[in-house]
Structures are given as structure tokens and as C-alpha cells.
Amino acid sequence: MQVVDETPNLIRLTRFGIVNCFLVREADGFTLVDLNIPGSAEAILSVAAARGASIHRVLLTHAHFDHVGSLDTLCNRLDSVQLCVGERESSFLSGDLSLRDGEAGRRLVGFRSARHRPNQLLTDGDRVGSLQTIASPGHTPGHLSFLDTRDQTLIAGDAFTTQLGVTAAGAFKVYFPLPYLFSWNKILAAKSAKRLCDIRPARLAVGHGDTVPSPVLAMNRAAEFALRQCGLMLD
């Protein structure tokens, strides 16, 4: 596992060069954002121990397999860990892929259920330690992003990727179709990308790709591209 200290409060952990999760340092230990692919728990715990703190909280951006793959293994090792999951996304974690009234999009794919149930259900605007929850649906119906209010670092899950430049979820590029193929509703994803741009984060950390400092210009371009593909305009 590759480990990058992005800031004094943010550590990026990467498996196979493409799948990220994050340790966010708080006064009482670490918050872990996402859990990477199956088989990552031991490496995550080792990195936390090497950095001198334990993991007290786990937050999920969404319930796709590459973000929850090590959830049960890690929670089994940490008896008192607090599991915080978006209210909408929690049903997918329990294996229920049904849509709610008013929801529409492509077929839901890529989800992975888990045995452990959340201790806390999150909605837009909630705070967990230093992290503020921001609803950013589109990639999945209940996708969440998290803003570190101390330094304006945005942990955006798959609302954006940075593997081949900053790309919004749902946007289609011939040379890089994955953000489109694995996103549920491209219109909601484009609108969420615009909302995240308006926060004007100092740093963009994502589930796939390197962390980008001073990302607002690139995020705006990505959001505009996605909105135009949906027949919408960037305000």
C-alpha cells in the first residue's frame, strides 16, 4: 500500500495505484474515510499505528465495493469504532438496491453489502469531528463528500476523479469512460460537481487519482463539461 502524507491532518492510502482511502487526524485519533478494496484492513491499521494513533471513526462516501471492501474485517478488529454512513447509502450497505420514490437513473451496479450496521446516519450538513458532510448524489443516490473545516480540504469520493485530469462523475470521455460507466445519474452528478466547486476547496482528495492542490479552476472546467453533456449550463 502506498502512503502519502498530504497535509498534517490527511494521509492518503492507495492500493494498486488506483484506489484511495484516507486517514484524517483528529485530537483523539483518526477518522478513516472509506475502506478501500477487500484485503486492505491490516495495511490500514498498520499505517494508523505507525502514525501513532488509533482509528475511532469510519465514514463512507458511498457503498461501492472499492470503498467498503474492508469494512467488516476492520470493524471486527476495532470493537468500539463508530461507523458513520449516509442515510440514503445505508440501505445499499445492507443489500437493498431498491430505489425510492422520485429516484431515477441507470441500473445500480458495483455495490457491496456488509454485516456491520452504522452507529450514525449522516445527512447534508452534519459534522463528524472536523469533517462537514456535503450531499453529492449522482455517482450513487446517496453519495457524500466531506470538507475538513480546518483547512478546506475536500474529500470527494467518486464525485470527481483525477486519474487523467480532474473529471466529474457521469461525464463521458472516449479515452476515460469509467466516470460515466459507473455513475448512476449523470445530471445529478454534474449538479453535485457544481455544488462542490462552489465550496472553493483548497485541496481535492478523491477515491481514484492523486490529490490536487488549488483545484477550483480544474473542478469548474470539469463541472462545466459535465453540465454541457447534460444540456445544462454552469451558472
Q: Could you characterize what this model shows?
A:
The chain is an alpha/beta fold. It has one domain (2-229): 4-Layer Sandwich (Metallo-beta-lactamase, Chain A). It has helices at 41-50, 65-68, 71-77, 90-93, 178-181, 186-198, 216-229, and strands at residues 2-7, 10-15, 19-26, 29-33, 55-59, 82-86, 120-122, 127-128, 131-135, 144-148, 153-155, 160-161, 167-168, 203-205, 212-213. The strands form 3 sheets. It has a 7-stranded mixed sheet with strand order 1-2-3-4-5-6-7, with helices on one face. Helix 6 packs antiparallel against helix 7 (216-229). The model has no long low-confidence stretch (mean pLDDT 96).
What is the strand and helix layout of this fold?
Elements: E1 2-7, E2 10-15, E3 19-26, E4 29-33, H1 41-50, E5 55-59, H2 65-68, H3 71-77, E6 82-86, H4 90-93, E7 120-122, E8 127-128, E9 131-135, E10 144-148, E11 153-155, E12 160-161, E13 167-168, H5 178-181, H6 186-198, E14 203-205, E15 212-213, H7 216-229
Parallel strand pairs: 4-5, 5-6, 6-7, 11-14
Antiparallel strand pairs: 1-2, 2-3, 3-4, 8-9, 9-10, 10-11, 12-13, 14-15
Helix pairs in contact: 6-7
What are the defining features of this structure?
235 residues; alpha/beta; Metallo-beta-lactamase, Chain A; six-stranded mixed sheet; 7 helices
What strand line-up does the widest sheet have? 1-2-3-4-5-6-7
Morphology: globular
CATH superfamily: Ribonuclease Z/Hydroxyacylglutathione hydrolase-like
The CATH topology = Metallo-beta-lactamase, Chain A
Question: How much strand?
Answer: 25-35%
Highest-level CATH class: Alpha Beta
Number of domains: 1
Q: Give me the Rg, rounded.
A: 16 Å
CATH level-two architecture: 4-Layer Sandwich
Sheet with the most strands, sense and barrel status: 7 strands, mixed
Approximately how much helix is present in the residues?
10-25%
Query: Mean pLDDT across all residues, rounded?
Result: 96
End-to-end C-alpha gap: 40 Å
Overall number of strands? 15
Structural class: alpha/beta
SSE string: EEEEHEHHEHEEEEEEEHHEEH
